[in-house]
Amino acid sequence: MSATIGDELPAHPFFLATLFVPQSGSLPETSSYGHGFSKSWAEERNQVRQSVKSWRCSPGSYPANESKVAGGRMRTLIVGIGALGGLIAARLRAAGSPVWLATRNADSAARLKASGLRVTGVGGAVSVETMEVAPLDEYLTGSRFDLVVLATKAHDAIEVASKLSGLLEPGGTLLPIQNGGVPQMLGDRLGECVLGGLSNLGATMTEPGIYEQGNAGHLLIGELAGGESERAERVRQWLGRAVELRVTPNLRGAVWSKLLLNCSVTTLGAVAGGTMREYITSSEGREVFELAYDETLSVALASGARPERMIVEPIPPARSGRSVPSEEYDAWLDQILEGYGDVRPSMLQDIERGRITEIDFINGYVVSIAPQFSVHTPVNAKIVETVHAITRGQLAPDPWLLEQILQASQ
Fold first, then answer.
1. How far apart are CA 356 and CA 152, in angstroms?
2. What 3-state class would DSSP assign to 325?
3. Distance of alpha carbon 316 from alpha carbon 299, whole angstroms
4. Whole-angstrom Cα distance, residue 299 to residue 167?
5. Would you say the C-alpha torsion 77, 81, 86, 90 has a positive or negative sign?
6. How confident is the model over 70-117, as pLDDT tens digits?
């Protein structure tokens, strides 16, 4: 579970329809999976582009040649103290590094001040006492930071992002680490201050301030335009005191690599009501996994992206249009299970707590852009429909739903 800000804001797949795809291409005029949106795709896309223009930082506010951080230290604010934000904050503070925390309201801040932060699980146990924590709005009155880590859910990141550029020192960096195309979208809106990031860390917040790390994953960061940079390396060295960080010159490919796993591992666990290791044992679970993964990979490759290794090589062994059963494929799947098989999906945690899911930024994103490349995604479309039915209370997570997805998509 992640602490969120502004749960009333709905996740909106049309924001993502302008990301990672050729701007000269035309978008379909209606949604391909029927969420009931009344406006056309073209109209939604134009509105997004207009908002991008209005959100951008003032010219010169965030020079590409970033300022040095004295002594290698970065004054750091973490926004969103849920599973991932809390894990990073606790481990960074335990390493002796100063860090400030932003919560959604004063009550949440007071609870964290009283309880401190505690982490167990992979990576070892740490416990830190009271630290600097306050509601986000309190930081807007004059606080400035070299690095702001945005660790909220995707829909909340969109809502608060317009406030965050004002919290940065000249040359400061905003690091969003959400699923889907959020980093690129915020880069389009805010400009050069945004450094792209994503996470394959598995973490659970059992209650505010109490976290469990479920795997030995890492954060991956990189410039949205691609290539290497001094600031990415500097952020890696700083946050690397807390969790493993890696820098990639191919963030676009890395985002698709994460989507491949989110679309097949995370959302299917949410639908089935359990971990990947639990649902993959059934023939239906395995088949839905394979189809969801293959559809997502087909869209990624058709878009021109070059997915890179994350836990496993993104293209399964001997794949020819779709995955081919073999001993090599089983070994490939075992690698995914080793990394994610026992992690309780964050989307399932959101469903259990009545929170908005990120389905429209994950499988929904894949479905929304697939028609541009003449790729059919019936399994992903049915997964989106099923998760929305669950969040509306019409269905409950159950392994039986995987069979229904298969039947409906054939």
1. 12
2. coil
3. 15
4. 37
5. positive
6. 446 899 999 999 989 999 999 999 999 999 999 999 999 999 999 999
Q: Would you say 258 and 354 are in contact if contact means Cβ atoms under 8 Å apart?
A: no
The H-or-E segment that residue 238 falls in is: helix 230-239
Domains and CATH numbers, the chain: 51-249 (3.40.50.720), 253-409 (1.10.1040.10)
How far lies 169's CA from each of 144, 256, 290, 372, in Å? 5, 31, 46, 40
Which helix (H) or strand (E) segment holds residue 379: the answer is: helix 378-391
Give me 291's structure tokens: 């189809």
What pLDDT digit, counting tens, does each position of 336-395 carry?
A: 998 888 888 889 988 998 988 999 889 998 999 999 999 999 999 999 999 999 999 999
Distance CA 131, CA 95 (A): 13
Between 62-66, 252-256, 350-354, the lowest mean confidence (pLDDT) is in: 62-66
Q: pTM of the prediction? A: 0.71
Angle (CA) 178-182-185 rounded to 5° is: 160
204, 83 Cβ separation under 8 angstroms? yes
Which tokens sit at 210?
A: 């109490």
Q: Which residues contact 160 (CB under 8 A, 6 or more apart)?
A: 5, 6, 79, 136, 150, 152
Distances (CA, A) of 88 to 201, 329, 401: 10, 34, 35
Q: Which residues pair with 128 in a beta bridge?
A: 117
Gyration radius of the chain over CA positions: 20
Query: Could you give the residue ranges of the DSSP H alpha helices within 262-362?
Result: 267-272, 276-279, 283-302, 327-340, 346-352
